[in-house]
Fold each of these.
Amino acid sequence: MKNPSVVTVEGGPREASPSPRSARGVSLSLLLLLAVGCASYARPAVREWSGFLHDYSRLRLGGPGELPFVYRNPNARWTSYDKVLIEPIALWRSGTRSLSPIADDDLRHLVAHFERAVRRRLGAGFQLVDAPQPGTLRLRLAITDARASNGVVDVLTPRPVDEPTNEKTGPLGRELSAFIEAAVIEGEVRDAMTGELLAQGIDRRASGAPPPLPTWEALDRGLAFWADGTFTGLETRAHGG
């Protein structure tokens, strides 16, 4: 993988925004959200999100057992898909210094652990492929700690050294644990051949969600739980269930 690259959000620099961590109180540990259920959320303005998704206008508030914000294409022919192309998962942050108390090494390992959990879960029900072909879903996912109202977004991706053979173990650092409590997961599924949008979702902290995850091992278990809860419905629809 390449080192983190900086990209400019369309429209150029805008006014400064409060820290997403203090403003949103959202969380990866919400991954245990299916056991907690969804709270009632007001729909945020588009500028409150990172810009990772190309269009937020289709999103609706999720119901019981759904992500807090979700869209499903009513015309999607789910049973025609048996393969998944997973784009490299990244972390979007507002500039290279927005998470400066956390080592980039830890952030890259977080993303690598997340991608491993996603690949394991989807690989159990679909053929994982590296190029578009008929019957293929294209999945884009990111952990986001940025706002579209910020002028510059830094995109951080894992390197080969961050892969599972060199995985982290032991306690999570305090700052990393706080970030996990404050991050958002954004994702979308498209037809890999046509680019047609099939589904979108945004995960954020629900009231009553569990406390921060204390170790890398606990994080792995939580990510596996999140992936199972999030993608079981996708697998069921594709298999005609």
Amino acid sequence: NKCGVDKVVMLIDNEKFFSNQFDQVTYNTNHRGGLVYDYNLTRLSNPSQYYYRLYNLSPKHFPYRQVFARNNGIWDTTNLPVGSHPLTFEITDVIGNVSRVQMQVIVEKGVQRSSETDQPTKAWSLEVWEFEGFLEVVCRSTTPFRNPPTLQISQQNRPPVTVSLLPKGTAAYSGTYELLPGQDGILQLTVSAITQDGKQLQETRQFPVHTIFANRGGTVTYGNNASMSFPPGALYEDIFANIFPTTSYETAEGLPVVGEVYDFRPAGCPLEKQGTIRIQYPANVADPKKLGIFWWDMIKKRWYFMDDTVEPQTHSLTAEIIYPSVYAILQDNVNPVISDLVPASGNTVPASPGELSAIIKDVGKGVDETSIVMQLDGKRVDGEYDPDRDKYAYPLTKALKSGKYTLTVQAIDKAGNPAKTQSSTFTIQ
């Protein structure tokens, strides 16, 4: 397989800050790939793309041993000199070819700036962005302010905090607020401002904070509609977990969404052990077998079925995950399709054609392998299904006698949708 590059190196101020040599990895550490790649953005597609983590989140678990990460790859700019600092990335293939790219990071004191020009779309807006361990609050306005806006943050059992919002690009201000593990509850974020003409503006947002500690695991819920759980030892570090409804997806023909689509966060968080998500479906669903938990691939723009379990007593589906992302319950109304029977109908073939085969594809929950029936002149032959190639094949162990034969193939998907039976009549010389 094309498994990415051979070596990555990052230099800051012309000194090596991070490097990883992809020389060997063992099967028993294969599940730790999420420490190396951001699974949420990495795809083994055509073309492949890899998003490498240029830091070492958990040194004792890192699957590659030839790794160097100063300060675990965390670049603290607090005491850096003001000015430009070059970041250089060197990528090497197995032959030794090297590609280099450089960017400049500007360190300033007391001012936050954006590298892009913000384009406000309305007179006054407030945005809350969630990152690992902190929130960024961005206030935008097409009307100039008399003074920079102020952000007040209040939470139960904690004194209110006032954060100054600093200029960020054009007609925008931003400030950050650190989240502290264990200090859970609803944050109330209130931004106040006065325009140059004296108009007072104020807007409030609420943000739920829920800590899940690595050493003991835990569960985050979105009411009774959805939940995400991690066993003890599943996480490499304490996280702030959340579940929000989202509209960042596309629908697929024959696979309607049932209820809400949920964004389980933090997206792409690597796990040492699998987590579990639960999504509730409406109590009036007549046939839960047609339902399934699907994952939305934001790169390929398509839905993938997750092996799930039905819990009829709670009207829920559960599935194990290797990282949080966007998941939903979809209803599978698509019939599988059988094609490309071999030998093909009308063909004349030698007495030993090698194998009998057919392609069986399904775009929903997948083909139920136990439902596949292949018959040769009405007599069942037991082959094997390869889901990676959508191929069902029966190897012939002895030559067939001369004459005409009829090959018939039937199948049903995991949602109970039947495929149209296909047959092929061929001649053995």
Amino acid sequence: MIDGDSVCLDRANRFINYPFANEHQYKMGDLVIRRFQFVPDDLEGVIVEYSVKNEGTLSDIGFIFTGLVDLMPVWLSERKDIVDGRDKARYNQEHEAIIAKDQQNDWFAAFGSDRRPDFHGIGGNLCQANNQGKGTRGFLRYDLTIEKGQTEEIRFFMAGSYQSIDKLWGNYDEIKNSSKELLQNKIDRYKGIVSSSKLEISPL
């Protein structure tokens, strides 16, 4: 939301796919926005980083992150009498994040950021995104002031667990507190794969 006008980041001007992550780039008037995301190894979660650069006049921005959650069993789970329950979401003050739970199973998901939200809520549909199945949604709003030529960054952390709420928050805290290290570890792992599988053929 920019000076009262709502803009949805649903059409990127450019997409880049890396071996370990991918990136969307947007141009919204005077704003240049980069979204970078990756899945850390061996953890149930995703890290998404936004950078917002102002190339024009002073901008007061309400940055709203909406998370759509649908906790559901895998295909053919009904053969084991696993029933998908309706998901219910709430705001967790301690972690400053939205948490959702399947009401019939110990399945959990949570999302938050590296900033305290200025406002939060359950529901909302600013960009007309639709839930699937018996899912739910929540949103976090951050009020940003970005001077001309300046860039603001905000990271979001999403975690899940199909075991317990303690496992959920363990995943979430590790992702949040070690995001840079987790990215570097993934980059290093892919470098190792490349170095062990490189084939060079001399010209005839």
Amino acid sequence: MIKKTIFISTLGTGNYDSTTYTYQNQSAQPTKFVQKAILELVSKVNNVKIDEVLIFTTSKAKEKHYTALVQEFESLNISPEPVDIIEAQNTAEIWNIFTTIYQNIPENSQLIIDITHAFRYMPMLLVILLPYSKMLKNIEVIGIYYGEFEKSRENNPIIDITSFHTLQEWTLATYDFIKNGNAKYLASLAHLAQTQIKPMLAETKDKDANASITRSIAKKLKEFTEYIEVCRSKKLIEGNFADVAHQIESISQDFIPAFTPLFDEIKGVMSNYKKNTLENQLHAVEYCIHKGKIQQAATFLHEYVTSFVAKSIGENYEDKDIRKDIREVISGYLSFTGQGKERQKWSYKLKDKPKEDELLDKIDRIPNSKEIAKVSSSLSNLRNDLNHAGYTKTPSSYDKMLKNLTSYYSKITQKLAEIPTIESTSEIKPVQERFLLNFTNHKFEGWTDKQKEAAIRQF
């Protein structure tokens, strides 16, 4: 959908003098109406086509200036549309103006706003009105301008203050990521690095690099959010977003100073993640708990326990090929023994039973295997409650789930920390060496490869 571009301005009651307004080294035709100069210059410099002009005016301002304003606009082939507003004397009347402006903003439009002759309360009103309209009417602000005027000067500048609105949006988006774990708003602002942030850096030598890095950060944070939402453990482990903190550090110091604290907040969230490490999944568990994402946290933690145990006993924890079956054995056996069931009642899952017995032997020998299994079993119950939407015998409330999950996380990380990694498994007793004595009259050298493999597996 192509958005209409709407120019919004207010008309005051002061005595306007003619002057030459300038913007981006361009000069407009002399005029006493800054609205005309802004339209002329912004259209030329930014190559913007204005579809509609709304002039909000009181009856006094309309009587004094509107006819002359319309005449000035004729040279631009634009017919402004007046919108009547009252002269506000109290809070209720200011709210009346707020409603009038909001009701006249078309849905799905992009706005250019002139605040030169705005009422004293208008800047504060716009701080609320613009994000309010963006949410409810899907508008986009592409420019906010102020015409500075001094009678003694031959030329007067038009100042682009869009950056303050840009900062407001980035602040809200950063808050959404930090508090709620959602970077989609940040990603939706990434294009501003090109259309609005770069113009703010006209005198900065690294503006292109900074804008590019900003877009990259927003994109990677969006990917991170999506991995969390749909529980993509392997993507988290790969950590293609792990250099976000480093990217933030590489942004030039003369980048927009007000952005620095926002980036520092983001860096604080992402600094623990590295490339190609299982620990990213554990960081994601803690992250999800803090954001109240119980389902994701429970899923990540349950799978992390399986992966960590697999790694500790020398198995590849990745979920591919036959490794999927091995993960099922580890996860299932932990849940099984965590319920206090005896191993002899275990139902084999692999066709290769000797291999499965070897896996179970290794699990039984790891430190605190019983305690780990017990917590893993409780975690399975929580995950089932979540996945079955509460259709269980004892469904839990949100608060109870969060409390239990936090407890499981604390216990399981403590117990897993006591397991030696595969690089240092001296505390795990090695499987005793076995051998086969052949008393048959068939020499070993004459056995087929299949017979030899069967003997090795079984004995």
